[in-house]
Write a structure and sequence with these properties.
The complex is a heterodimer of chains A (115) and B (112). By secondary structure, chain A is mostly beta strands. Chain A has strands spanning 3-7, 10-13, 19-26, 32-38, 44-52, 55-58, 65-70, 73-78, 87-94, 105-106, 110-114. In chain A, strands 2, 4, 5, 6, 9, 10 and 11 form a seven-stranded mixed sheet that branches. In chain B, strands 2, 5, 6, 10, 11 and 12 form a six-stranded mixed sheet that branches. The chains are: A mainly beta (115), B mainly beta (112).
Chain lengths: 115, 112
């Protein structure tokens, strides 16, 4: 069966420090991968999505970047965190070739607090 | 453009009350529609979906009917439980696209 792992679960980082959040998927090949952010009291914002290794699409200009060095690994990074980067970050995957019509499977999320 | 609009929360109900959470959408194509649920401190879980007009998605006592004429996908449950307390997200997916458009979420609080 397919599983998605996301870590760490919580993170407190000072302003200006770097960030690296990792997401891995098991039990499937060539998944579509996504990073979403949920700011406090707000909905989900798509940050990045990827349909293959080194194929990253950015949805919004921001202080973050994403990379996919391996087929089932998706990394969210920042060189210098801002206070506005605080939020709940969710990784998700969908079955390739279906357009996501079977829904996404989400990781358990990382709560990032920038202080 | 493509967007999803949900009713503002929080919604507070007593146990066994009837639930409706409104969701309407705007789409440039012919979307599939979804409801996701997020329990406190967790990621999102798929609750139900409908892929074409007049389809009804159902799961765990929740239902939603895809209404093309009113561009709506309202979530309903006949008798809510305390364990249903969560945030509910409506979402649309356009055919042949790889990304969802989510509503802002509606928080449901169910009191015993």
């Amino acid at each position: 069966s397919q599983t998605i792992h996301q870590w760490p679960a919580t993170l407190v980082q000072p302003v200006g420090s770097p960030l690296s959040l990792e997401c891995t998927v098991e039990g499937t090949s060539n998944p579509n991968l996504y990073w979403y952010r949920q700011a406090a009291g707000r909905g989900l914002q798509l940050l990045f999505y990827s349909i293959g290794i080194d194929q990253i699409s950015s949805e919004v200009p921001q202080n973050l970047s994403a990379s996919r060095p391996q087929d089932r690994q998706f990394i969210l990074s920042s060189k210098k965190l801002l206070l506005s980067d605080s939020g709940f970050y969710l990784c998700a995957w969908s079955v390739p070739g279906t357009g996501g019509n079977y829904g996404y499977t989400f990781g358990s999320g990382t709560r990032l607090t920038v202080v | 453009g493509n967007s999803v609009t949900q009713m503002e929360g929080p919604v507070t109900l007593s146990e066994e009350a009837f639930l409706t959470i409104n969701c309407t959408y705007t789409a440039t194509g012919y979307p599939s529609l979804f409801w996701y649920v997020q329990y406190p401190g967790e990621g999102l879980q798929l609750l139900l979906k409908a892929t074409k007009a007049d389809d009804k998605g159902s799961n765990k006592g929740f239902e939603a009917t895809y209404r093309k004429e009113t561009t709506s996908f309202h979530l309903e449950k006949g008798s809510v439980q305390v364990s249903d307390s969560a945030v509910y997200f409506c979402a649309l997916l356009l055919y042949n696209f790889n990304k969802f458009y989510f509503g802002s979420g509606t928080k449901l609080n169910v009191k015993p």
